[in-house]
Amino acid sequence: MSAVADPRISALPLPDREDVPEGVRRLWDRSLEVFGFVPNVFVAQAYNGEQFQAWWSYFNLLVNKEGYLTNAERELLAVVVSGLNRCTYCTVSHGAALRHHTQDPVTADLVAVSWRQAALPEREAALAAYAEKLTLWPADVTPADLEPLRAVGLDDHQILEAVQVIGMFNMTNRVSTALGMVPNPEYHAQDREHRARG
């Protein structure tokens, strides 16, 4: 399986393996080993290799490493924001991650389209509502909007991480949309064999 992606995945040229920093090549190789494919975002954004590595370092720390929120909560925020922004790449790829962490394909699909129809628990609904406001109406956000998060038990570390994840995905959505990034086909089928939570 090649690390070179389909050239139609981005509006900009894609780098060849020899044109990217060693750290990017290691990430491509590790992705092939773990996932069986290289995420298209890892190829499209690597056209500017050093900038990609800086973005990936923060993104990976914020979204994939152990943090203050659960993996499922961070992926919930990713899918809510990406769905609201109509970012195809991020909605599909992080929808797959949300299915993985929740083992619930039905809720993950509903969240991607309209989180209010997903019958989310109170804490998750508060996170989704805050993500929606910060994404769609950032000029209207005030410190008072944090109170519903506190009311469902989120502490200040968790609130700050939620804000950072929401901000990260609003930025990443815009990059992915501007470049016309296409999700890897593998994302569509991942973790769909589970049942919806009752």
From TrEMBL:
Residues 51-131 form the Carboxymuconolactone decarboxylase-like domain. It comes from the Bacteria. Transmembrane segments: none annotated. Coiled coil: none annotated. NCBIfam families: ahpD_dom, peroxid_rel. This is Alkyl hydroperoxide reductase AhpD.
